[in-house]
Amino acid sequence: MKRLLAGARIDPRPVTGATTVRELVDGALLAYNGARLREAAQLFVRRMLEDDVTIGVSLSGALTPAGLGMSCLIPLIEAGFVDWIVSTGANLYHDTHFGIGLTMHRGRPDLDDVALRADGVVRIYDIVFDYAVLLDTDAFYRKILFAPEFQREMGTAEFHYLIGRVVAERQRALGLARKSLVAAAWEHGVPVYTSSPGDSSIGMNVAALAIEGCKLKIDVSRDVNETAAIVLGAKRSGGKSAVLILGGGSPKNFVLQTEPQVQEVLGIEEKGHDYYVQFTDARVDTGGLSGATPSEAVSWGKVDPEKLPDTVVCYCDSTIALPLLTAYALAEHPPRKPKRLYERRDALMESLVREYHQAHDFGPDGGLKRRS
């Protein structure tokens, strides 16, 4: 039983005004979810940021309205610490506000919402902004989505890449810097996917423009296969796949379902993601995906069972955890060369399709038979 006492003694140094983020994380976060945050930060820096690891990040919850796109996600992209993203459409819509020169403001959670509505003010908990911000952002999308390059079917990575280029141009014209997540992703070749394209104001505007004759259509099947191809490509190159999950919801499932798509649906032999870090406030016992553990994910083939020691779930608000993780990672690890996966999507898809055909026989009637 003495081996159970082999962990380091809890004997921290006092926190002072000179304590660095590294010293705070490594030396003061010693138990409970503080310890899980320390373990997550250390796993991220010591294992996930190795050059041969491909990192997918999922974003749910209103993170960009709170400024976390500018404060954390853009610096992580610029450092080469994010290789691909799955986000709610809402995060990308609100990110656009900043990129086109609109503003959001700090408020309070106890404001009178009836009075806010009468004054044309919108509230996201303790964030407030003018209703005109929504109308101006809608007008921005309705104008650019009639451009010739949008008049066809495409996946959400290509859609957001084109949006990011336009937003980056608008930022430069307005003299803004480091405001938009989609613009930073465009610049660094980071593909950005949306798991539910219709579930946001961007999707609502796409739907409205369809009534007006816009030919844009979102190919969700492309997204499912393309994200699976990214993960398979990471493994087949001799590297590893990691996921950093901020919140839960549909983006969490979409970033994780890449492995079941490869194994269960496409019939390609694989084991699961290698590294898994999640920050969530969702409970496990309600049975929802947001609170599902890495161990449960093993049963679906989402996580390699041999890599469970390299998984951490921290039950903490992402608005607390992400700034600490970002500061720790930037202080502890040099920048990585961007993988620029957006530009490699077609080649990765070709490899996925080739393995799919190698794993199956197609009968004379066109039916699909898996090889034993």
Defining key terms:
372 residues; alpha/beta; Deoxyhypusine Synthase; three-stranded antiparallel sheet; 47% helix; globular
Tally of DSSP helical segments: 15
Terminal CA distance reads 47 Å
CATH architecture: 3-Layer(aba) Sandwich
Number of strands: 13
Helix/strand order, N-terminal first: HHEHEHEHEEHEHHEHEHEHHEHEHHEE
CATH topology: Deoxyhypusine Synthase
Give the CATH level 1 class: Alpha Beta
Largest sheet: 6 strands, parallel
Total count of domains: 1
Provide the low-confidence segments as ranges.
Answer: none
* Rg of Cα set: 22 Å
Account of the 3D structure:
- With 372 residues, this protein is of the alpha/beta class.
- The protein has a single domain (20-370), classed as 3-Layer(aba) Sandwich (Deoxyhypusine Synthase).
- The protein contains 15 helices and 13 strands.
- It has helices spanning 21-28, 32-48, 68-78, 89-99, 113-118, 131-144, 156-174, 181-188, 201-211, 220-236, 249-256, 258-265, 294-300, 318-332, 345-358, and strands at 53-59, 84-87, 105-106, 121-124, 127-130, 153-154, 192-194, 217-218, 240-246, 275-280, 311-315, 360-362, 368-370.
- It has a six-stranded parallel sheet, sandwiched between helices. It has a three-stranded antiparallel sheet with strand order 3-5-4. It has a two-stranded parallel sheet with strand order 6-8.
- Helix 3 packs parallel to helix 8, helix 7 (156-174) packs across helix 8 and helix 10 (220-236) packs across helix 12.
- The longest helix is centred in the middle third of the chain and has 19 residues, at 156-174.
- It is globular and about 70 Å long.
- The model has no long low-confidence stretch (mean pLDDT 92).
